[in-house]
Amino acid sequence: xxxxxxxxxxxxxxxxxxxxxxxxxxxxxxxxxxxxxxxxxxxxxxxxxxxxxxxxxxxxxxxxxxxxxxxxxxxxxxxxxxxxxxxxxxxxxxxxxxxxxxxxxxxxxxxxxxxxxxxxxxxxxxxxxxxxxxxxxxxxxxxxxxxxxxxxxxxxxxxxxxxxxxxxxxxxxxxxxxxxxxxxxxxxxxxxxxxxxxxxxxxxxxxxxxxxxxxxxxxxxxxxxxxxxxxxxxxxxxxxxxxxxxxxxxxxxxxxxxxxxxxxxxxxxxxxxxxxxxxxxxxxxxxxxxxxxxxxxxxxxxxxxxxxxxxxxxxxxxxxxxxxxxxxxxxxxxxxxxxxxxxxxxxxxxxxxxxxxxxxxxxxxxxxxxxxxxxxxxxxxxxxxxxxxxxxxxxxxxxxxxxxxxxxxxxxxxxxxxxxxxxxxxxxxxxxxxxxxxxxxxxxxxxxxxxxxxxxxxxxxxxxxxxxxxxxxxxxxxxxxxxxxxxxxxxxxxxxxxxxxxxxxxxxxxxxxxxxxxxxxxxxxxxxxxxxxxxxxxxxxxxxxxxxxxxxxxxxxxxxxxxxxxxxxxxxxxxxxxxxxxxxxxxxxxxxxxxxxxxxxxxxxxxxxxxxxxxxxxxxxxxxxxxxxxxxxxxxxxxxxxxxxxxxxxxxxxxxxxxxxxxxxxxxxxxxxxxxxxxxxxxxxxxxxxxxxxxxx
Length: 697
Description:
The chain has helices at 2-44, 52-71, 75-103, 118-129, 133-139, 141-153, 162-184, 195-200, 206-228, 270-275, 280-291, 328-336, 351-361, 370-374, 383-389, 407-413, 436-443, 473-478, 491-517, 538-545, 585-592, 648-674, 677-681; strands spanning 308-314, 338-340, 343-344, 393-401, 417-421, 454-459, 523-529, 560-561, 564-567, 574-576, 580-581, 614-618, 622-626, 629-632, 637-640. The chain is α/β, with parallel strands linked by helices.
C-alpha cells in the first residue's frame, strides 16, 4: 500500500516537472508568435493571409532557439532570463507599432547611420504611442503573465535540463530549416518579387519584408546586413526590355515626318568601366546601364535655358488645399504653368529625408539616412552641382536645424551654399514649426540683384505635423484665415490647411521681391512635396482627399499630388497627362534647362520625353501606374485604365515588361548611393563634363 502511494506521489511530481518543463519550452515561441500576430493585425489590418506560413514557422523557430538557452538555466535564472527577453520584445514591438503609427513605414537599423541618432527616432515614435496604447499594453501581456505565475512554474529548485534544450534545438531545426529551404526555391526567379527577394534584399522593400517575416526576423536580417553588408544583386537586362514602351497614336498624321532630336546622353565607356573594377555589383551596374534606352531630347529641351530656378520641397504638402480664394498665388502657378494631371508622391520608406532625396537626385532610397550617406558621395547630376558648373549662384535653405537628417553634409555636397537654423539663418520667430514666409524674406536678398543667374533650393517646415492648433504654431497663426470650406472638417484637417497657408505666403513674398527686382519673367518655380500628409488621421485624409476611409493608406489616389512648375514667361499652360512621380523631377528640369546629363544612369526619366511613361510607387509593394492601367505589387494584379489600348494578351506582355523595368530600378537605385556609382562611372566619361566636381581617384 505504501509503495503504491509513494509511486503515485513520484508520478505526480514527475507530471508537475514535465508540465513545468513543457511550459518553459513553449512559452517563448508562443509569446513571440503572439506578438507578431498582434503587431501584424494592428499594422496591416489582417494577421492571417497568404504570407502567414512564413511568419508562423520563422517566429516559432526563433522562439525555440531562444528556448535552447532558457532550458539550460535552473529555475530562478530561467525566470529572470524570460523576464529580460519578454521585456525587450515588448518594448521593441511597441516601438515598431508606434513608429509605424507615426510614419506609416517601418523603422530600420540602417536608417540610423550613426548610433547617436537613435534618440531622435525614439522621441518621434513616442509621440505616436498614445494612438496605439492598447497595442502597447497587449504587448506586455506575456511578461505580465510570467511575473504573476512564473514563480509557480519556474521554481527555484527546477534544474537546468540539457535534454529539453536539445528538444528545443530540434524544434528550431524542424521549424526554421524547411521554411528557409522553401524560400530559397524561389532564388532562380530573378525577375519576380518572391519570398526569396523579400528575405534576401529586405532594404529594397522593407514594408513587405515585415509583412512576410514579421518584426523579429526582419529586424534580425536588417541588423545582419548592417554588420556584414547586403548580398550583391546581379540583375542585368540584356535584351533592351527596359526601352521606353511607345504606344502608337492612331490619330497622329502618318504623313507628318517627326522632328529628329538628339539623346540626353554623355559619352560613357561602360565596357571599360566594367573592366576596371573587381566589384561584382559595380560590374553588374555598368552592364545594366549600358543596355538602358536613353530618353530623347524634345520640343521642350532648353525651354528654360539661362533662367533662374527656385526649387522647393514642401513639407507634408497636398495640392488639395490649393484654391483660388485661399491660395491665389499657388492656384496661379498650379494652373498657368506645366499642369501635371497624374503626378504621384511615393512614400519611399524614409519619411521626409527619402522624399527630399528623390526630389533632388532623380533616384530613390528606402531609408532616412540617404541624405547623410550622400554627404561624401559624388553627385554630379544634382541641380546644385549642375548649375554651379555653368556659373550660377547656388544656395539652399531650411528653417529647421542645419544638421537634421545630415543636410549639413548632403546639401553642400550637392553644390549649395547651405544655410539653416544654427549656421546663419535667423528668423523673426522662434517657434515650432518655423515660418516659411519668414525664411523667404530672410534669404531672397542673398541671390537677387547679382550679375549672375541663380538657383535657390528651399526645404520648408511650416507644414510639419502635429496638425493641431496647440501643437503647430503656424496652424495657430493662421487659424482665423481659414475659409468657409473648412468649417465642417475635422480639427486636424483645419490645422493642416492653416499651417500650409505659409506656402502661399512664402511664394507671394518671393514673387513680389522678384517682380520688384525685374527678375520674375526670368525665374522658374518648381515645387513638390516630400510626402503626403501622413500624420493626418484616416478620417482627416478621407475628408481632405474625398476617398473612402477604409484602406485609404493603400489607395493610389492618396499619393496623387501636385508637381508645380511655372514661369511668368509662359504664355499658356502645358497640360501633361502622363503618370509620373518625384524621381522624374530632376531629369525633367535638366532637360528643360538643357543641362548636360545622361538619362541612362538616373532611375527617373524626363516626363516630356516620348514613350509610355509610368509612375513608380512604393505602395502595397512595388506598384506602378501608366496610361494603360495600374499594377498593384502586393497582389500582383493589373487593372486596365479606361484608355487602355491593349488586348488581354498584350496586357500580359506589357505588365511583364514594365515589371522587369521596375525590378531593375528597385535593384539599382539604392546601389547608386551605396556603391558611390557616379564616382565610379564618371571616370569613364570620354569628355570632361564634371567641372569643379570631378571625381577623385
